Amino acid sequence: MLSLDEAQSRAQDLVSAARKAGADAADTIYACNASTNVSVRLGALEDVERSEGEEIGLRVFIGQRSASISASDMNPATLGTLVERCIAMAREAPEDPYAGLAPEDRLLRKRPPSLDLTDEEEPEPAALRERALMAEDAARSVPGVTNSEGGGASSGRSQVALATSHGFAGAYAGTSHSTWASVLAGAGSDMQRDHASHNVRHLEDLDDAETIGTRAGQRAVARLNPVKVESGVMPIIFDPRIGSSLIGHLIGGIVGPAIARRSSFLLDMLGEAIFDAGVTIIDDPLLHRGLRSRPFDGEGLPVERRALIDRGVLTGWLMDSASARQLGLEPTGHASRGGSGAPGASVTNVHMEPGIASPGDLMADVKRGLYVTELIGMGVNGVTGDYSRGAAGFLIENGAVAHAVSEITIAGNLKDMFRALTPASDLQFRYAMNVPTLRIDGMTVAGG
Q1: CB of 403 within 8 A of CB of 225?
Q2: Residue 181, class by beta-carbon neighbours within 10 Å (0-12 exposed, 13-18 middle, 19+ buried)?
Q3: What is the pLDDT of residues 333-385, one digit of tens each?
Q4: pTM confidence score
Q5: Environment class of residue 244 by beta-carbon count within 10 Å: exposed (0-12), middle (13-18) or buried (19+)?
Q6: Each residue's pLDDT tens digit, 245-264
Q7: 268 and 161, same domain (yes or no)
Q8: Which positions ≥6 away from 102 have C-beta within 8 Å?
Q9: Full domain range(s) for residue 33
Q10: Are residues 160 and 245 located together in one domain of the fold?
């Protein structure tokens, strides 16, 4: 793995080579990932895997024509060929009036912020194996657990460097540590499966392996003996570990490319109240130790904490430079970039601010409803907002969680669901996208 300085230098050299070869403008992104993963099953070592890979992507512009290409071979001769091919491709590409680098006057010029994304600790495979065994043993020790899909632990490091021909160069790194366990409870056709995991930047922030394993076992056992549910309209309570998917659908509807294509269910909702006034959703790329934190975006623009939803109101679109030009607006620092292709737009660390009611208070007046802990399938239409997904979880009767349920479908329309959404007070920061327990009234439930 290259050092950060070497990675940044490699990216700058490739941009310089492209300019010398005739490109009017160019940018390069370098990415490297290295990880060690250890998995166990039924108390025995199952796999030890070490992976390391790097990729460099070049994008060039000839007038309003552009092309991109990537390679995993860092040999200078290969990179020279990469430049030649990319320029040849660009000369044959159709003109795009919106293509181009980010506005030069918007580039990050000051020293990138320090976000504490790297951990000096790098556990040995033996330590990862011990952690994986502890997690699985704890899960298998829960009464009612009858089999295991395994446990695992991993550590890794990633590095990103970006350089542009109009003056930006930067690089940053991040580490990761994770533990997981997945087990089964019951037997035969009544068997149920569930899991638990935790992923952090710094090892000291990682949950205890036994805690993770015990959580996995308890979740699996709780799902035993599911009952049938009659179809109808009822309140749905979303567990925090799956409620974030609703915010994912919101993000898909406000990214600049979707708006520019006019293919979003939120197309005409800018500045409108799409949630209750008690809902605020924040995107924070500068969160210290955040799982998706970054000091600059995929085009070299500065990033900042901002409210995507402010007291229920949709504040703006998430834009890369190309979609911003197409819409006659300014880029927002949300550009994301892979090794090949033009930048898109994405969020970083997102959370919904907590409400004032506890989860218990949120369901206290529910005579009959569902507490959903798992969603299945991808039955969501991003153009119309129609929502229909398989689900599993627990029946709520008279304000309390009762029997497990499975093989059900919940349906609605995202616009209606957003307006009816109420957050609880139990927000915790465990994922890249975090929400408290959520309640949505008036959803249609189809029983199994």
Answers
A1: yes
A2: buried
A3: 999 998 888 899 999 999 999 999 999 999 999 999 999 999 998 889 999 99
A4: 0.95
A5: buried
A6: 999 999 999 999 999 999 99
A7: no
A8: 164, 168, 299, 300, 301, 321, 331, 335
A9: 4-220
A10: no
